[in-house]
Amino acid sequence: MNHLIKIAVDAMGGDGSPKKIIDGIVHHHKKNKDTFYQIFGDKNQIFESIKDKIEQRFYEISHTDEIVKGTDSPLEAAKRGKKTSMWLAIESVKDKKTDIVISAGNTGALLVISKLNLKMIEKIDKPALSALWPNKKGMSVVLDLGANIECSSKNLIDFSIMGASLYKSLYPSDEAKVALLNIGSEELKGNEIIKETYQIINENKNLDFNFKGFIEGNNLMNGDVNVIVSDGFTGNVALKTAEGTANFITDELKKAMTNNIIGKISSLLNISNLKKFKKRLDPRLYNGAIFIGLDSPVVKSHGGTDYIGFSNSLNVCCKIVKGDLINKIRKNI
């Protein structure tokens, strides 16, 4: 049993839980026989969805009736106490009974309860919320996506190191290429904090990544860099804009393809290309924000995703554990 990756799963968060969460686990287990699922939530509902689908030696259910609601403020969620499925899942990682924790529940609550339970990695002041984005050549790690509205140059340097470590954990054979998100690519552009960060990183020759300077919003997807660093305000606006644009494009394409007879014929001819394109933009593939900077990794799956999306978040969990993310950050910090 020792070689199994142990994932603590909060089964009660997000839409359609716990069924969707368990269906995601079952789907993930088909291809991953090296994972043990420690599942927290309502035992009766969970067992109903999982029985006969996974051998008993690959999971354990820790029963609790109490859950963090999607409508709870972070403070209300913390006050609900230590018996909620989210709290217990995070606690199991804190006690080293599991390697990583995942929840599709309330993001604010997850951040606050994680911070209450887990220590920061030494020398890091603030944790960051990071996620994966598609680019022309593969994937990028983007952070911070909203955990810290204001950041110092020290925070942004920490995010660069953490983001590069995360990228190397997920894609061990690639080089991490880091850039700071800014309003221009010239050294003189941007506010004082970002200019100072540029100077410090540029002069530091000991960092374990390739520094590419500044990147503008319109170049995020071109694939020349694969770790994009910003404060949480800017990162969150960029994320929401990119998501909205992707949805707009796929919706408009659908309309154009189904509106008239010529559109229908051409869509039949183009169906395989369209499927490829849609697959590239499928948010389920990149589902899972990663809260890094704490001494255990915390993964947030999108509350509205389906079981395939949740299964993909479990893949991210496995890669992070196999890639030894926390020790990579410790070493590079």
Describe the structure.
There is one protein chain. By secondary structure, the protein is α/β, with parallel strands linked by helices. It folds into 2 domains: about 1-125 and about 295-325, Isopropylmalate Dehydrogenase, CATH 3.40.718.10; about 125-290, Isopropylmalate Dehydrogenase, CATH 3.40.718.10. About 45% of the residues lie in helices and about 15% in strands. It is built from 12 helices and 11 strands. The chain has helices at about 20-30, 45-50, 75-80, 85-95, 105-115, 155-170, 190-205, 230-260, 260-270, 270-280, 305-320, 325-330; strands spanning about 5-10, 35-40, 60-65, 100-105, 130-135, 140-145, 175-180, 210-215, 225-230, 290, 300. Helix 1 (about 20-30) crosses helix 2.
| The CATH superfamily title of the largest domain | Isopropylmalate Dehydrogenase
What is the CATH class name of the largest domain?
Answer: Alpha Beta
- Estimated share of beta-strand residues: 15-25%
CATH fold-level name of the largest domain: Isopropylmalate Dehydrogenase
Our count of domains comes out at: 2
pLDDT under 50 segments (min length 5)? none
Give the proportion of residues in helices: 40-55%
The side-by-side strand order for the widest beta sheet comes to: 3-2-1-4-11-10-5-6-9-7-8
Number of strands: 11
Number of helices: 12
Give the SSE string. EHEHEHHEHEEHEHEEHHHEEHH
Task: Give the biggest beta sheet.
Answer: 11 strands, mixed
CATH architectural group of the largest domain:
3-Layer(aba) Sandwich
Distance between the termini: 32 Å
Helix-strand category: alpha/beta
Outline? globular
Query: Whole-number radius of gyration?
Result: 21 Å
**Mean of pLDDT:** 90
